[in-house]
Write a structure and sequence with these properties.
- A hairpin with a 7-residue loop joins strand 5 (105-107) and strand 6 (115-118).
- The strands form two sheets. The protein has a five-stranded antiparallel beta sheet. The protein has a two-stranded antiparallel ribbon with strand order 5-6.
- By secondary structure, it is an alpha+beta fold.
- It contains eight helices and seven strands; from the N terminus they run ββααβαβββααβααα.
- The relative contact order is 0.21.
């Protein structure tokens, strides 16, 4: 699923279902079901509402994510119940592939970490010129360092946060829900919200009852 200008989120693998959550809860009574029914949906809602979260850590997903580094550094804060495997600039030579915003936003006057509306057209044109010049100069410096023989592990240090990186994210359903609760919030940065929307669209069909219950219980 495409995200931003050059990014994507792709479902690689998944384990379990809503029934897995139900059976994880019922094992405490030595019971197991083969078919999911309406009563099980009620049980899932009860588990979510009362923070009985361990059954939601049974299902897992593996996602392939391509995102700007500044997005992934926010994403990688979600370490509980998840693991990240990232492409390494020590092994590969990066291509000139970086995120270019369609819109440049002004700094929020009320939130230190937030933004408000779009810049004026004149300021936006100037911002784009500065932004592109910086990214292009960074890649030119990177390529010059490689050309004179600097190791990739050092040459990469001049590259911008807008550089695209690729990651495999392995996460429990509870970890996915926690990520979505925080990064679908209107206060989250717009770029990572776009990724959160894509993650929800991919994962919700796999665990419709469980994911909805987790998202609506908070």
């Amino acid at each position: 699923m495409r995200v931003l200008d050059k990014g994507f989120v792709e479902l690689i693998d998944h384990m379990g279902s809503d029934l897995s959550v139900v059976n994880g809860a019922r094992i405490s009574m030595g019971k197991r079901k083969e078919v999911f029914d309406d009563k099980d949906a009620g049980l899932i809602n009860y588990l979510a509402e009362h923070d009985h979260t361990s059954p939601f850590r049974i299902p897992h997903v593996v996602l392939h994510i391509k995102a700007p580094i500044f997005v992934m550094r926010q994403w990688m804060r979600y370490k509980i119940g998840s693991d990240f495997n990232e492409i390494s600039g020590r092994y590969v030579e990066f291509e000139q592939e970086y995120y270019v915003p369609k819109v440049f936003r002004s700094q929020s006057k009320n939130l230190k970490q937030g933004s408000d509306g779009e810049l004026t057209m004149a300021d936006a044109i100037r911002a784009e010129q500065v932004y592109l010049r910086s990214c292009r100069n960074a890649f030119a410096s990177y390529e010059d360092l490689l050309e004179v023989g600097v190791a990739k592990e050092q040459a990469r240090m001049v590259l911008p946060l807008a550089l695209y990186t690729e990651v495999y994210w392995t996460a429990s359903l509870q970890a996915v829900a926690h990520f979505l609760l925080q990064r679908l919030d209107p206060h989250a940065q717009w770029e990572i919200r776009e990724y959160a929307k894509a993650v929800k669209e991919l994962i919700l069909p796999l665990y419709p009852n469980s994911l909805n219950a987790l998202l609506e219980a908070k």
